[in-house]
Amino acid sequence: MAAAAALNGGLVCSFHGSWGTSMYGDDYYSLVDSLPRHVTVGNGKPSRSPPSMKNVNEGKGLFAPVVVITRNIIGKKRFNQLRGKAIALHSQVITEFCKAIGADAKQRQGLIRLAKKNGERLGFLA
Known about the structure:
Blueprint: H1 2-6, H2 25-34, H3 64-74, H4 76-101, H5 105-122
Helix pairs in contact: 3-4, 4-5
């Protein structure tokens, strides 16, 4: 309070503890339990699950069964090569379409993202 008096009554603080000892027992453990799983208490380093490139619509969509059967027949490596070529050709078609109508690069990128979302929903990326 001497510091507050030195400020001529400007700041008054009623806190008389320390931040490190202000939480013990059940309050501490309920706080720790409420944290998201990727946050850890202890060593200070957050631990996150590795990023997943898995399709959220795996096995869903109208064409998913055909895609899965084809992948099983021709093999995953060959299937991914063909899928990559198909995606590249489709991107080229979108690019040529954008050139023909005079769309800019941002609109082109938006159309490519839309095509990817539609492909996921329909099951082409299963």
